[in-house]
Amino acid sequence: MARRSAIVIAAAFLAVLIVPAIPAAAGGGGCHTGATQDNGDTVELVDACPTPTILTIDPGGTVTFVNEDPFAHNVIGSSWGHPDDLNQDEAFTATFAEPGIYPWACWYHPGMTGAIVVGDGTGVGNGAAVDVSSFSQPEPSPVVEVRTVTQASSAPAVAGWVIGPLLGIGIGLGIAALISRRRPAA
User: Is the full-model pTM beyond 0.70?
Assistant: First the structure.
């Protein structure tokens, strides 16, 4: 009897630890608000999310990728990109000579993807026409951006940490009920 109780308690404990992590890990990268589009020359990597996700530039335009996260990212495209670690406050630039759509992803964070649309987007879109410079420290920006965390953006994470333990306890009780049904009759 004590052995079964220990198994049930261990199963419930593991479920409480594992289940809350499932919602957080499901999306890979941290960008869960959908794609963003913009014209410009910079893609910021913030909260494991490229901003903007889709950047439109003119042929011959240069894009600077800046990592603002405290952890490493990389930018991998088809025959172009920066496969080495791009650490916090590091940047690299890529010049796109030919029209096309140039998708990219971060190897470290599945789901962290984006695309550079050059011109009208029609064209080969491969990396043969992309010139990539080595990374460097970006120039300090005189603009200070204030980011506000709202309750709506934190609600899914909080819900995962509340629902997860409750689900774990439910699973543990279900296991306990199954084990107690299988007791040999005396």
Answer: no
